Amino acid sequence: MRGRLTPDGQRRPHRGGASGLAARIAGAVAVGATLLAASAPAHALFSDDEARRALIELRGRFDLYSRDTNRRLDDLTARLDALATRAERLEQLASGQLDLTNQIAQLQQELARLRGQLEVQTNELAQTQRSQRDLFADLDTRVRKFEPVTTQIDGKTATVDVEERRRYEAALGLMRAGEFGQALTAFQQFRTRWPDSAYTANVLFWIGSAQFAVRDYRAAITTHQQMVQRHPDHPRVPDALLNIGLAQAEGGDRKSGRATLQGVIDRYPDSTAAQQARDRLPAMR
C-alpha cells in the first residue's frame, strides 16, 4: 500500500501522482484506438469529393491526437524525472529510517511501472503512426483515381475524370470490336453519368452509329440530329449527316436520304463523308 506513515503509525494514502497520470495515459490510448478503429474501414466507402473531405478530416484528427499524445508523453517524462530526483534525495536522507526506506522502495516500484507504461505508450504511438501513414497512402492512391486528367479530344485539350476517360475508351473498344449492342448500352450509361462531359458530342455520334448498326434507324436519325444541332462545328458533323441520310434510305425514305447525302456533298465537298455520299447516291436512284 502506497503512502506515508503518520506519527501514530497509521499509513496516509498518497494522493494524485502516478495513478492519475496512468489514468490519463489510458485515456490517450483509448483515443488512439478509437481514431484507428474509426478510420480503418472508411476507405472502402469513399468516392470523389467525399474521399477528399474524409482524407482532410482524418488528417486533422490524427494531427490533433498526435499532438495530445506527445504532450502527455512529455508530461510523463517530466514526472519520471521528478520522481527519480526525489528518490535520490530520499536515499541520501534514509540513514536507516524505515519509513524513508519504504518510500524509496515504493518510488522505485512506481518508477519501474511508469517506465513500463512509457515504453508501452511509445510503442503504441509508433504503431498508430505507422497505421495512419499506411491508411493515408491508401487514401491518397484512391483519391488520385478521381483526380481530373488532361487529354486531347478532337484536337482540343480537355479535363476529364480518370474513370470518365476509362469508361469512354471501354465503350469505344466495344464499338470497334463490332459489339454494337453492348457499345450502345455502354455509351448510353456514360451519357447518363456524365451528361456534361467533354466527350458528349462524340458519345452522341457513337450512340447514333450503334443504333444504325443494330438497325434502329429512327433512333439513329434522332440521335445524329441532336448531335448536329448541339455541336454544329464538331468535326464529326459531316459523318453524322451521312449516317442520317443512310438511315433515312434504309428506313424507306429514299428521297430524304438522297437529299441529305447531296447536302453533305454541297456543304462539305472535300470531306471523307462527301466522298462516301457520292459513292452511295447512284444506288439510291
Walkthrough of the structure:
- It is a single chain.
- By secondary structure, the chain is mainly alpha-helical.
- It has two domains: 3-144; 150-284, Serine Threonine Protein Phosphatase 5, Tetratricopeptide repeat.
- 74% of the residues lie in helices and 6% in strands.
- Strands 1-2 form a two-stranded antiparallel sheet. Strands 3-4 form a two-stranded antiparallel sheet.
- Strand 3 (148-153) and strand 4 (156-161) form a beta hairpin.
- The longest helix has 47 residues, at 48-94.
- It is rod-shaped and about 125 Å long.
- The model is unreliable at 1-19 and 35-45 (pLDDT under 50).
Helix content: over 70%
Query: How far apart lie the N and C ends?
Result: 112 Å
The chain-level mean pLDDT equals 81
The global form is rod-shaped
Question: Can you count the beta strands?
Answer: 4
Classification by helices and strands? mainly alpha
Residue share in β-strands: 5-15%
**Major β-sheet strand ordering:** 1-2
- Please count the helical segments: 10
Order of helices and strands: EEHHHEEHHHHHHH
Unreliable stretches covering 5 or more consecutive residues: 1-19, 35-45
| Structural domain tally | 2
What is the radius of gyration?
38 Å
Biggest beta sheet attributes: 2 strands, antiparallel
